[in-house]
Design a protein that fits this description.
Layout lengths: L1 H21 L5 H14 L2 H8 L10 E5 L9 H10 L2 E5 L5 H14 L7 E3 L9 E5 L2 H10 L4 E5 L3 E5 L6 H12 L9 E7 L5 H7 L9 H16 L5 E2 L4 E4 L9 E7 L2 H10 L4 E6 L26 H6 L3
Parallel strand pairs: 1-2, 1-4, 2-3, 4-5, 6-7, 6-11, 7-10, 9-10
Antiparallel strand pairs: 8-9
Helix pairs in contact: 1-5, 7-8
Length: about 325
Protein backbone atom coordinates (compact mmCIF):
# COMPACT_ATOMS: atom_id res chain seq x y z
CA UNK A 1 0.00 0.00 0.00
CA UNK A 2 2.79 2.41 0.91
CA UNK A 3 4.49 1.71 -2.45
CA UNK A 4 1.27 2.68 -4.23
CA UNK A 5 1.02 5.90 -2.22
CA UNK A 6 4.67 6.66 -2.87
CA UNK A 7 4.15 6.13 -6.59
CA UNK A 8 1.16 8.50 -6.64
CA UNK A 9 3.15 11.10 -4.66
CA UNK A 10 6.00 10.91 -7.16
CA UNK A 11 3.59 11.35 -10.08
CA UNK A 12 1.84 14.27 -8.36
CA UNK A 13 5.13 16.00 -7.58
CA UNK A 14 6.11 15.59 -11.22
CA UNK A 15 2.78 17.10 -12.33
CA UNK A 16 3.27 20.05 -9.94
CA UNK A 17 6.72 20.73 -11.38
CA UNK A 18 5.45 20.46 -14.95
CA UNK A 19 2.52 22.78 -14.20
CA UNK A 20 4.91 25.35 -12.74
CA UNK A 21 7.11 25.19 -15.85
CA UNK A 22 4.11 25.30 -18.19
CA UNK A 23 2.55 28.37 -16.56
CA UNK A 24 4.84 30.58 -14.50
CA UNK A 25 1.84 32.18 -12.75
CA UNK A 26 1.41 28.77 -11.10
CA UNK A 27 4.08 29.12 -8.44
CA UNK A 28 4.84 26.09 -6.32
CA UNK A 29 3.28 27.69 -3.24
CA UNK A 30 0.08 28.58 -5.11
CA UNK A 31 -0.27 25.06 -6.50
CA UNK A 32 0.23 23.63 -3.01
CA UNK A 33 -2.39 26.06 -1.65
CA UNK A 34 -4.89 24.74 -4.20
CA UNK A 35 -4.02 21.11 -3.43
CA UNK A 36 -4.31 21.74 0.31
CA UNK A 37 -7.75 23.30 -0.18
CA UNK A 38 -9.02 20.26 -2.08
CA UNK A 39 -7.40 17.84 0.37
CA UNK A 40 -9.54 19.42 3.10
CA UNK A 41 -12.72 19.44 1.01
CA UNK A 42 -12.56 15.93 -0.43
CA UNK A 43 -13.48 14.04 2.70
CA UNK A 44 -16.73 12.23 3.42
CA UNK A 45 -18.05 14.55 6.14
CA UNK A 46 -17.54 17.71 4.09
CA UNK A 47 -18.99 16.14 0.94
CA UNK A 48 -22.00 14.73 2.82
CA UNK A 49 -22.74 18.11 4.39
CA UNK A 50 -22.69 19.63 0.91
CA UNK A 51 -24.83 17.13 -1.00
CA UNK A 52 -27.36 16.57 1.81
CA UNK A 53 -28.94 19.88 0.81
CA UNK A 54 -30.12 18.40 -2.50
CA UNK A 55 -32.55 15.84 -3.83
CA UNK A 56 -30.69 13.53 -6.17
CA UNK A 57 -32.56 11.93 -9.05
CA UNK A 58 -31.25 9.70 -11.78
CA UNK A 59 -29.00 11.75 -14.02
CA UNK A 60 -27.38 10.82 -17.28
CA UNK A 61 -26.62 14.11 -19.00
CA UNK A 62 -23.39 14.78 -20.84
CA UNK A 63 -22.04 18.00 -19.38
CA UNK A 64 -19.36 19.99 -21.19
CA UNK A 65 -17.08 21.95 -18.85
CA UNK A 66 -15.07 24.83 -20.29
CA UNK A 67 -12.58 25.54 -17.52
CA UNK A 68 -10.84 28.73 -16.45
CA UNK A 69 -7.10 28.74 -15.84
CA UNK A 70 -6.46 31.92 -13.85
CA UNK A 71 -5.27 29.94 -10.81
CA UNK A 72 -4.41 26.26 -10.21
CA UNK A 73 -7.37 23.86 -10.53
CA UNK A 74 -9.86 26.68 -11.07
CA UNK A 75 -12.26 24.29 -12.83
CA UNK A 76 -12.00 21.44 -10.35
CA UNK A 77 -15.19 22.34 -8.45
CA UNK A 78 -17.18 22.00 -11.67
CA UNK A 79 -15.68 18.57 -12.33
CA UNK A 80 -16.45 17.36 -8.80
CA UNK A 81 -19.98 18.74 -9.12
CA UNK A 82 -20.65 16.89 -12.37
CA UNK A 83 -19.28 13.60 -11.02
CA UNK A 84 -21.16 13.82 -7.72
CA UNK A 85 -24.41 14.71 -9.52
CA UNK A 86 -24.24 11.45 -11.48
CA UNK A 87 -23.73 13.08 -14.85
CA UNK A 88 -20.93 12.59 -17.37
CA UNK A 89 -18.17 15.20 -17.69
CA UNK A 90 -16.63 16.29 -20.99
CA UNK A 91 -13.77 18.58 -19.97
CA UNK A 92 -12.14 21.27 -22.08
CA UNK A 93 -9.28 22.41 -19.83
CA UNK A 94 -7.76 25.84 -20.03
CA UNK A 95 -4.43 25.71 -21.82
CA UNK A 96 -3.01 27.43 -18.71
CA UNK A 97 -4.11 24.67 -16.35
CA UNK A 98 -4.11 21.48 -18.39
CA UNK A 99 -1.27 19.68 -16.55
CA UNK A 100 -2.97 19.38 -13.15
CA UNK A 101 -6.39 18.62 -14.63
CA UNK A 102 -4.89 15.90 -16.84
CA UNK A 103 -3.14 14.40 -13.82
CA UNK A 104 -6.30 14.11 -11.73
CA UNK A 105 -8.42 12.75 -14.58
CA UNK A 106 -5.70 10.16 -15.25
CA UNK A 107 -5.67 9.31 -11.52
CA UNK A 108 -9.45 8.83 -11.54
CA UNK A 109 -9.25 6.56 -14.57
CA UNK A 110 -6.54 4.41 -13.00
CA UNK A 111 -7.98 4.14 -9.48
CA UNK A 112 -11.65 4.02 -10.43
CA UNK A 113 -11.92 2.38 -13.89
CA UNK A 114 -15.65 3.07 -14.06
CA UNK A 115 -14.83 6.78 -14.46
CA UNK A 116 -13.38 6.07 -17.91
CA UNK A 117 -16.99 6.18 -19.12
CA UNK A 118 -17.91 9.17 -16.94
CA UNK A 119 -15.04 11.65 -17.41
CA UNK A 120 -13.10 12.53 -20.54
CA UNK A 121 -10.93 15.38 -21.76
CA UNK A 122 -11.27 16.93 -25.21
CA UNK A 123 -9.09 19.55 -26.86
CA UNK A 124 -10.90 20.09 -30.13
CA UNK A 125 -14.45 21.28 -30.77
CA UNK A 126 -17.04 20.24 -28.20
CA UNK A 127 -19.72 17.99 -29.63
CA UNK A 128 -22.41 15.65 -28.32
CA UNK A 129 -23.32 17.20 -24.97
CA UNK A 130 -26.57 18.14 -23.25
CA UNK A 131 -25.50 20.89 -20.87
CA UNK A 132 -22.54 23.21 -20.58
CA UNK A 133 -20.71 25.01 -17.77
CA UNK A 134 -18.42 27.70 -19.18
CA UNK A 135 -16.21 30.13 -17.29
CA UNK A 136 -14.48 33.03 -18.98
CA UNK A 137 -14.14 36.78 -19.30
CA UNK A 138 -16.86 39.33 -20.02
CA UNK A 139 -15.91 39.14 -23.70
CA UNK A 140 -16.03 35.34 -23.92
CA UNK A 141 -19.34 35.41 -21.99
CA UNK A 142 -21.01 37.08 -24.98
CA UNK A 143 -19.52 34.44 -27.26
CA UNK A 144 -20.71 31.65 -24.91
CA UNK A 145 -24.21 33.12 -24.82
CA UNK A 146 -24.45 33.00 -28.59
CA UNK A 147 -22.62 29.73 -29.18
CA UNK A 148 -24.55 27.78 -26.53
CA UNK A 149 -27.90 29.51 -27.08
CA UNK A 150 -29.64 26.20 -27.79
CA UNK A 151 -28.13 24.35 -24.83
CA UNK A 152 -28.98 24.40 -21.15
CA UNK A 153 -26.05 26.43 -19.88
CA UNK A 154 -24.41 27.86 -16.79
CA UNK A 155 -22.18 30.73 -17.92
CA UNK A 156 -19.81 32.81 -15.81
CA UNK A 157 -17.90 36.04 -16.44
CA UNK A 158 -15.53 38.42 -14.66
CA UNK A 159 -16.18 39.21 -11.01
CA UNK A 160 -14.24 41.01 -8.32
CA UNK A 161 -14.16 40.87 -4.53
CA UNK A 162 -14.11 43.52 -1.81
CA UNK A 163 -13.16 44.13 1.79
CA UNK A 164 -14.87 46.57 4.15
CA UNK A 165 -12.77 47.62 7.13
CA UNK A 166 -14.08 49.02 10.41
CA UNK A 167 -10.70 50.37 11.49
CA UNK A 168 -10.69 48.11 14.51
CA UNK A 169 -9.27 45.01 12.85
CA UNK A 170 -6.66 43.05 14.76
CA UNK A 171 -3.20 42.43 13.36
CA UNK A 172 -4.22 38.82 12.78
CA UNK A 173 -7.27 39.89 10.76
CA UNK A 174 -5.17 42.20 8.60
CA UNK A 175 -2.63 39.41 8.10
CA UNK A 176 -5.48 37.15 6.93
CA UNK A 177 -6.64 39.96 4.64
CA UNK A 178 -3.22 39.82 2.96
CA UNK A 179 -3.99 36.18 2.03
CA UNK A 180 -7.31 37.30 0.57
CA UNK A 181 -5.55 39.95 -1.51
CA UNK A 182 -2.31 38.34 -2.68
CA UNK A 183 -2.82 34.57 -2.84
CA UNK A 184 -2.65 33.42 -6.48
CA UNK A 185 -1.12 36.86 -7.26
CA UNK A 186 -4.61 38.38 -7.11
CA UNK A 187 -5.68 36.58 -10.29
CA UNK A 188 -8.81 34.91 -8.88
CA UNK A 189 -12.31 36.37 -8.80
CA UNK A 190 -12.28 35.82 -5.02
CA UNK A 191 -9.13 37.91 -4.55
CA UNK A 192 -9.81 41.19 -2.75
CA UNK A 193 -9.02 44.00 -5.19
CA UNK A 194 -10.85 46.90 -3.53
CA UNK A 195 -11.02 47.97 0.11
CA UNK A 196 -13.54 50.33 1.69
CA UNK A 197 -11.95 52.12 4.65
CA UNK A 198 -13.35 54.57 7.23
CA UNK A 199 -12.38 58.23 6.91
CA UNK A 200 -9.01 59.01 8.51
CA UNK A 201 -7.97 55.35 8.42
CA UNK A 202 -4.21 54.87 8.87
CA UNK A 203 -3.17 53.23 5.61
CA UNK A 204 0.24 52.28 7.04
CA UNK A 205 -1.60 49.47 8.85
CA UNK A 206 -2.14 47.85 5.46
CA UNK A 207 1.47 48.36 4.45
CA UNK A 208 2.62 46.57 7.57
CA UNK A 209 0.31 43.56 7.23
CA UNK A 210 0.74 43.28 3.45
CA UNK A 211 4.52 42.93 3.89
CA UNK A 212 3.68 39.30 4.59
CA UNK A 213 3.64 38.95 0.78
CA UNK A 214 6.55 41.19 -0.16
CA UNK A 215 8.32 38.16 -1.65
CA UNK A 216 5.95 38.17 -4.64
CA UNK A 217 7.84 41.13 -6.12
CA UNK A 218 10.56 38.57 -6.94
CA UNK A 219 8.18 36.82 -9.34
CA UNK A 220 9.05 38.16 -12.78
CA UNK A 221 5.53 38.32 -14.23
CA UNK A 222 4.05 39.97 -11.15
CA UNK A 223 7.01 42.35 -10.92
CA UNK A 224 6.55 43.33 -14.58
CA UNK A 225 2.91 44.20 -13.91
CA UNK A 226 3.78 46.18 -10.79
CA UNK A 227 6.54 48.16 -12.53
CA UNK A 228 4.35 48.85 -15.55
CA UNK A 229 1.43 50.12 -13.46
CA UNK A 230 3.76 52.24 -11.33
CA UNK A 231 5.33 53.79 -14.44
CA UNK A 232 1.92 54.64 -15.91
CA UNK A 233 0.87 56.40 -12.70
CA UNK A 234 4.13 58.34 -12.50
CA UNK A 235 3.83 59.44 -16.12
CA UNK A 236 0.25 60.59 -15.56
CA UNK A 237 1.16 62.39 -12.31
CA UNK A 238 -1.39 60.32 -10.42
CA UNK A 239 -1.34 60.13 -6.66
CA UNK A 240 -0.78 56.66 -5.23
CA UNK A 241 0.82 54.87 -2.32
CA UNK A 242 3.71 52.61 -3.24
CA UNK A 243 3.84 49.54 -1.02
CA UNK A 244 6.99 48.21 -2.68
CA UNK A 245 5.16 45.17 -4.05
CA UNK A 246 1.70 46.68 -4.52
CA UNK A 247 0.11 50.03 -5.29
CA UNK A 248 -2.73 51.57 -3.29
CA UNK A 249 -4.84 53.83 -5.48
CA UNK A 250 -7.88 55.80 -4.32
CA UNK A 251 -10.77 55.12 -6.68
CA UNK A 252 -14.51 54.62 -6.84
CA UNK A 253 -13.93 52.01 -9.54
CA UNK A 254 -13.68 48.25 -9.14
CA UNK A 255 -11.48 45.50 -10.62
CA UNK A 256 -8.05 47.17 -10.88
CA UNK A 257 -5.11 45.75 -12.87
CA UNK A 258 -2.81 43.20 -11.23
CA UNK A 259 -0.65 44.69 -8.42
CA UNK A 260 -3.03 47.64 -7.84
CA UNK A 261 -5.49 47.69 -4.94
CA UNK A 262 -8.24 50.29 -5.03
CA UNK A 263 -9.38 51.90 -1.81
CA UNK A 264 -12.32 54.18 -1.08
CA UNK A 265 -13.13 56.13 2.08
CA UNK A 266 -16.57 55.97 3.65
CA UNK A 267 -18.40 57.74 6.47
CA UNK A 268 -21.67 55.77 6.47
CA UNK A 269 -21.64 51.96 6.40
CA UNK A 270 -25.18 51.95 4.97
CA UNK A 271 -23.88 53.80 1.93
CA UNK A 272 -21.26 51.10 1.50
CA UNK A 273 -24.00 48.47 1.68
CA UNK A 274 -25.93 50.31 -1.05
CA UNK A 275 -22.86 50.48 -3.29
CA UNK A 276 -22.22 46.79 -2.83
CA UNK A 277 -25.83 45.91 -3.63
CA UNK A 278 -25.76 48.08 -6.76
CA UNK A 279 -22.71 46.10 -7.94
CA UNK A 280 -24.06 42.73 -6.85
CA UNK A 281 -23.75 41.16 -10.30
CA UNK A 282 -20.06 42.08 -10.48
CA UNK A 283 -19.01 41.09 -6.96
CA UNK A 284 -17.98 37.57 -5.99
CA UNK A 285 -17.49 37.96 -2.23
CA UNK A 286 -17.02 40.53 0.53
CA UNK A 287 -14.81 40.11 3.59
CA UNK A 288 -15.56 42.17 6.69
CA UNK A 289 -16.21 42.02 10.42
CA UNK A 290 -19.01 44.56 10.00
CA UNK A 291 -22.69 43.92 9.30
CA UNK A 292 -22.39 43.55 5.54
CA UNK A 293 -24.90 41.23 3.88
CA UNK A 294 -23.40 37.80 3.05
CA UNK A 295 -19.92 38.90 4.12
CA UNK A 296 -17.33 36.32 5.14
CA UNK A 297 -14.46 36.37 7.63
CA UNK A 298 -10.97 37.62 6.89
CA UNK A 299 -8.85 34.85 5.41
CA UNK A 300 -11.83 32.95 3.98
CA UNK A 301 -11.93 34.49 0.50
CA UNK A 302 -9.74 31.73 -0.94
CA UNK A 303 -11.33 29.02 1.20
CA UNK A 304 -14.94 28.93 0.00
CA UNK A 305 -17.33 26.27 1.24
CA UNK A 306 -18.44 23.85 -1.45
CA UNK A 307 -21.85 25.55 -1.56
CA UNK A 308 -20.37 29.04 -2.00
CA UNK A 309 -20.64 28.89 -5.77
CA UNK A 310 -18.86 30.96 -8.39
CA UNK A 311 -21.02 33.85 -9.63
CA UNK A 312 -23.49 32.84 -6.87
CA UNK A 313 -25.10 30.32 -9.23
CA UNK A 314 -25.87 26.94 -7.65
CA UNK A 315 -23.94 24.48 -9.80
CA UNK A 316 -25.46 21.33 -8.31
CA UNK A 317 -29.00 22.70 -8.67
CA UNK A 318 -28.24 23.35 -12.34
CA UNK A 319 -26.86 19.83 -12.80
CA UNK A 320 -29.76 18.16 -10.99
CA UNK A 321 -32.41 19.92 -13.05
CA UNK A 322 -33.76 17.95 -15.99
CA UNK A 323 -32.62 19.05 -19.43
Amino acid sequence: MSNKKDSISVELNKAVQEAEKHNSWFSNSNILNALSYWKNKLNKNVLDAWINQYNFINQNSKVAIIMAGNFPMAGFHDLISVIISGNKAIIKPSSDDKILIEFFVSYLHKEFPETNKLVKIVYDKLTDFDKVIATGSNNTFKYFEYYFREKKSLLRKNRTSLAVLSGNETNDELRLLSDDVFMYFGLGCRNISKIFIPTNYDLTKLNSSFNNYKHIINHHKYSNNYNYQKTIKLMNNEEFIDGGHFILSESENYAPPISIIYYEYYTDIQEVNKKIMSKNNDIQCVVSNLKIKNSISFGDAQKPKLNQYADKIDTLKFLLTSS
